[in-house]
Structures
1.
Amino acid sequence: MKRRKLITGLVTAGALLLLTPLTLRLLGFGATPGLEAQAEYFPVQDAETGKWGFIDSKGDALTPPVFDWAGDFRHGRGLTQVTLAGQPVMGYIDASFEEEGDWAITPRFELADADDVAARGFYDELAAARDDEGVWGYIDPTGAWAIEPQFAAHALMPELQPCGDFADGMAWFQEAEAVMSNVTDEHGQLVRDADGEIIQEPTLRIRYGYINRKGDATIPAQFALAQDFGEGLAGVRYETSDGWGFIDRRGHRQISPQFEAVGRFSQGLCPAKLHGKWGYIDREGEWVIEPTFAEAREFEDGLAPAREVGGRWGYINAKGRFVIAPQFDNDPRPGMYNDARPFDGGLARVMLDGEACYIDTTGKVVWPR
């Protein structure tokens, strides 16, 4: 099924600078697992039917594979997609699900197409969801609006989601406005029309801030880019800096901008990129594991996925040593997570010998058996 994995803990793509749609597309997206609540069950796809279901941490089936797609299962709610009356919609099940029609939150979040996203998983006991008007808010585990829909994607970039997932009681949001920007060529020179006038095109000016669980903007929209909070810190980029730094929950700078890219703090460490390679920093911004990896992700259960330069993914410990040998490949399927995932609820999703698998912290394949 062609779908970008549901954007939970979105690594935002946008900037305070004047960005063209092409620039935004090139920035790309990412996702962060494990925000505030570990996965309780895990989505899997049946190889024969293409349908989705859930398994538990032992690899045993929780549900039959009856969903068009399945996502996060946290806080007692599992995100699913089904087709009702010819319309793809999203809803939520709980652990008592046995057959279609047995819903914890009735599917009502409509999708424009199979690649759309109209609801996301629960984090901090809140889930981002879109109403019938296409505006995003947050629901509680009963399906009621905890934060009324108020975040809307801009018409110039409708696929750019306007709000993130909660962690540490905070979630990022974006403010976007259309402005006219000068068009330049591949050499950075202004492009002019036949009369010598500078050609302009509509672009988006985007800023990011953070809301609390009441929906109040406790950190005003002021950043060029923003990450999810983790352990009281969030990665941000400022208009005046090309590097990533970190702020606290009050919006105060804690680590100066200096990194090419960052992840999210977990278990006291955060992946960060410098001079083209990834390592891990502490809360002071000091290197604990020197940047030597081609890619790296967050620590969970004492392990973090990392990829050797020119090599495969494995899992390292807090000393930077591989304890699960590099052996996992990227997922070639479009729209899926393409790397080895951090552990979440005791399991991690990897690609092994061309097959999507879940492994435990010893490296043993739990699913499929």
2.
Amino acid sequence: MKTIALIALLAWLPAAQVLAAPPAKGSTPASGMLKVAFVISDDANVMDIAGPWEVFQDTMIDQANGEHIMPFELFTVAPTKATLHTTGSNRPGLAITPDYSFDNAPEPDIVVVGAQSGGAGLKEWLQKIHAQDRVIMSVCTGAFKLAEAGLLDGKPATTHHWYFGNMASKFPDVKLVREVRYVQSDPTIFTAGGLTSGVDLSLHIVAEHFGQAVAQSTADYMEYQGTGWKSNQGISTLTTPVTRHDWTGKFGAQSKIVVHLVTEGASNTATADIPEQNIAGVSTALSGQGNKVRIAFHIPGHPATFDGVVNPNATEIAGTFVQDGKSTPLTLTKGS
């Protein structure tokens, strides 16, 4: 969605005057402006930025004298100020030059963390902001960045439904909540589901600061008719695509291995059979980056690992199988 320009009629209004009556919920700085920092890095998702950005930029407060103010001041912050690219369709996406780096960014009142690759200093910056009791909200898999910073340990949280399995396996201490638009994880941390859920969470935060009527007026200006920000109800149970493939290979002289891979959305789980060792359905842990894959086989008394590289057609993984201190070549071939 393209960012809608602020209507020309309001362009002359003073943006930094003190609010006539601070809202009962939330807090407003003496300047009347709440600073909202949007964390960005390579592969940032556009909707995760644009949705909340539109909500906060379109929020207007009516004053007793008939004037209006925009109470939010928005800026972008990243590991460095170097230009980066958002997600795109099989090519680099939008080019964005961050306003600030973590080293020189103004102290924010609200931080928005959408899906993105992350970068140096993000973990420490989020920990610092949380220690200052500032509001931090994630959208989609931005929740993973909060979890990596340790901000969600033992707390409820949500993320995009395609990544529920990944969240559950990578961060078992996080209390994953499904089928809601957003979750308040602690007094200052909020996590939203995928993509458009960020709009609902942002409207919820506007309502917390300035009341339901202001949030509704913002939604009306955006022509946004979703009601999840009021009810926090998810839409009907979403269908997540599931695929199953067997990857087969041999290591050593005779030993055959079959890895049964199940992909649900973007979450992978696998079990393995090694007939020569009387192993059937042993659990595994999958990890990887780029075209590199690691599989850890949880074989009682004889744990094993496989480190391999996926070929360009994603039909083979060639690497090394290690068990009981012995390394042997192994190539897994994708079957039906």
3.
Amino acid sequence: MDTTVRIFKSKAEMKAEELRYWQSRPAHERMEAVSSLTHAAYAMKDPETDVRRLQSVAVCLQRPQR
């Protein structure tokens, strides 16, 4: 984990650096971060229940015969 402290002159500069950081990360790492944040947000919203998760949907598609 990177523990470097950075000082920015403006919020726009900070947001630009944050965007560059996340764009440099692989897609699976970004998706994992989104999932963690989503689970944490649902847990804060309703701590009495289990954290809700995305539902999986199976779809059968018929393809024409070759």
4.
Amino acid sequence: MVQKLNKILLIAFCLLGTTAFSQEEEEGVKPPQIKDYNNDSTFKNFARYRDDVAKAQVNALKNGGALLIRLKTNVNTITKLKNAGKVDLATQVERETFLNNKAIVRGFTNQFKFCPVYFFYSNVSDSVKHKNTTGIFLDTNLTVDPAIICTAGFYLIAEQGTLYSSSIGLTTEAEAVNAREKGTAFKDFAIVVKNRYFIQLHEPFPYFQKGYKMKTYGQYVKNFNDKLQIFYTKYKSYNPSPEIKQYIY
């Protein structure tokens, strides 16, 4: 299903006379472009703290945290197609996007047990970044339901997307606000986990799960859930120091 949507989008881009662009670009969030981190200050303590940050993140997620799933809208492409008189193609993109999102919601609702999970559309990404989450979450029919409230003080973001060799190491929240992630794509069609500022997490946190076939999407989610549980069980007694806590937000 993802492949079918990508083919339809490629046709749409060709008809519109534009190059392909990602959902992040559609929603105003620029994706990584190049690998350039040799002199990046966020890697100063990376080797020293990386493992402990991952341990603290998984504990925060399990104990009172939540996972927020970002769903694509392809709204800009759909609008451009309609404005160009390509109504049938716009309807196709709309339909396939909806079916993909339904499969993702069904997969996480049925198979993800590690922590509470919530769903939101990518056009409210900025609100999620700044913890303005009132009235943005979706029910299983992909309809915004103001009654769905997330009270978690800590949450991570997961989405179906592309993995990058990230240009960002470890950032405090003050640094993350203005951080610009760059990198080289090395794996497509994966469940990717990011922090609240949409910066990709690092190993050893189970920050991705490969898989894209919507018919078996629930199995990919289950595999991801199991990896989180195994990692948490191994380090559930970990108590982060102040040096580590500054990276957990």
